[in-house]
Amino acid sequence: MDTSTKPKVTFFHAPQSRSGGTRALLEELGVDYDLHVLNFKTGEQRQSAYLAINPMGKVPAIRHGDALITEQPAVFMYLADLYPEAKLAPPIGDPLRGPYLRWLVFYGSCFEPALIDRSMKREAAASSTCPYGDFDTMLKTLTDQLEKGPYLLGDTFSAADVLWGSALNWTTMFKLVPELPVIRAYIDRVITRPAMQRAAEKDAELAASQAA
Ligand SMILES: N[C@@H](CCC(=O)N[C@@H](CS)C(=O)NCC(=O)O)C(=O)O
Predict the structure, then answer these.
(1) Which CATH number characterizes residue 143's domain?
(2) How far is the CA of 53 from the centre of ligand 1 (A)?
(3) Please, what is the Cα angle at 55 between 51 and 56, to 5 degrees?
(4) Looking at ligand 1, which atom is closest to the CA of residue 60?
């Protein structure tokens, strides 16, 4: 598709939140977008204008033409497919397409629920019924893949690494995930990329301007 004919994406974002990963992806994609900043301190995400975008009152969300997309894995898949020239999403037919989808969805369906149970010190459901099995199995599944490296898809850097690199960065910082050497090395590999650094700097500026 010719990029010039695509409607511009509107990105709904709050600084220093989960939507930071989407900001990093947009920076990696190198595309122009409209930024719509929400102020969590004033509860803007719970007001009717934003609930019409995401009834969950959560970021990230994006609007593209008439399409509204929420939930990080869906947002990542949508954006990386929308801009194929950036080569951050293996296309259908590529043997890496399946693993790529797997790791994006694993984030939302296994990692996040496991993380929240752990942070709340909640007893998880029996591993046979729990969506993530148990925390250690979930984490080992991830770290076994990272050991193969350098990225989740081996030598191919993808949008999945933007999501995971960003998420592991804040979750290790908050000590929700152990900072194992394989995890630390992966985070460093991802977050030192120039686009990731630019996104982090812009986000810090935005947080400072909201705090002022
Ligand atoms: N399942 C959602 C979770 C997003 C989420 O939890 N976002 C937080 C930011 S860290 C949020 O918007 N919280 C605002 C609120 O719930 O009031 C996703 O992965 O996109």
Answers:
(1) 1.20.1050.10
(2) 13
(3) 115
(4) 20
Dig out the tokens for 133 from the structure.
Answer: 């099995």
pLDDT of 4 higher than 80 = no
Structural domain count of the chain: 2
* pTM, rounded to two decimals: 0.97
- Return the residue whose CA atom lies nearest to atom 18 of ligand 1: 71
Of the three residues 61, 88, 115, the one that is the final residue of a domain is: 88
Mean local confidence (pLDDT), 155-174: 98
**Cα–Cα distance between 196 and 161 in angstroms, integer?**
11
Instruction: Kindly report the three-state secondary structure assignment for every residue of 86-150.
Output: HCCCCCCCCCCHHHHHHHHHHHHHHHHHHHHHHHCCCCCCCCCCCCCCCHHHHHHHHHHHHHHCC
**Position 43 in a domain:** yes
Dig out the tokens for 17 from the structure.
Answer: 């939140």
Query: Domain residues for 29?
Result: 3-88
Spatial CA neighbour of 94 closest among 54, 153, 149, 44: 153
Same domain, 101 and 180: yes
